[in-house]
């Protein structure tokens, strides 16, 4: 027997809030709630469904795995994992690279940090302030996390003040979707920080959990900076909503781990089910040329938002982003909250943090969907008291 939504809600710990509405169906960019109300998803779930919800090829791969092997334990190798590792080494441009597959982006980032600390003997790491690394572990944002060294983004002078001799790694997350709401660092800043880290013997860890798999208009966000990383953490879009993540290391790090082994036990490590979903994601992204197509729609989206800013400069202060990772900076947080609520009531699901609205739709979103959203934002702004019509 299925409980009514009100009864179900009492059984949920509201650790991240508890929305009122129940989602009944999701396919592509479109959602339908339990009352039959339609929506367009400009958040890709939690920035994960880059191919759109319920992608047929990904679903088929998951069903095949359910009927064959979903979870295997420690006694066997996984052919799916080994094939996926080869594809990630190719996509990252890391010949001889190796991967391990886990369940969440936080876990992949934390394992990357653990490896860097294990190999270097150092116990701290550097991250760009405003970037989000993990919900737990070494990368957590807690005030008592003394392992973390924050580097002010785009502050060239701050690079020289970092105690690099204490750092096992420099962790780069470009885009900052969670905390700074889509901010990309300058190329000269990234180049100098990477140079300083490498000179001091710190590993370069790229956090691609959110920017990866086409989100920024390229396969991976670090590719905008000409970087060749040593370790790369991926998640979210890797499974198109299925909980699978990856840590990929280059050949040198892999060889160092052969010489200095690290034991890491996790119940769903290299499970065939998650790896099958990820293989289907990569195949579908390549077959549909969705990274390039998403980049093209992203250019259209950014242009429409910029035009809105020109029409309403007192309400819209800035447009930021790359590809389909965009943000609209409004005059204040209260305005952003009101606009986001109005959009939701009009069937448009967007993100909101502080004074910014965030847009990270599936790469399959259409220009027509974008145009409808921007019109609705314009109407919401026009409806504000005292706003010019």
Can you put this structure into words, describing what you see?
Helix 3 runs antiparallel to helix 9, helix 4 packs across helix 9 and helix 10 packs parallel to helix 12. The chain has 389 residues and is an alpha/beta fold. The protein starts with a helix and ends in a 7-residue tail after the last helix. A hairpin with a 4-residue loop joins strand 2 and strand 3. The protein has twelve helices and 15 strands. Strands 4-10-9-8-7-5-6 form a seven-stranded mixed β-sheet, with helices on both faces. Strands 1-2-3-13 form a four-stranded mixed β-sheet. A four-stranded antiparallel β-sheet has the order 11-12-15-14, with helices on one face. It is globular and about 70 Å long.
Layout of secondary structure:
Layout (H helix, E strand, L loop, with lengths): L4 H5 L13 E5 L2 E4 L4 E4 L2 H4 L8 H12 L11 H14 L5 E5 L2 H16 L3 E5 L19 E4 L4 H6 L5 E6 L14 H13 L3 E5 L23 E4 L10 E5 L1 H9 L12 H16 L2 H22 L4 E7 L2 E6 L2 H13 L2 E2 L1 E3 L2 E4 L7 H16 L7
Helix pairs in contact: 3-9, 4-9, 10-12, 11-12
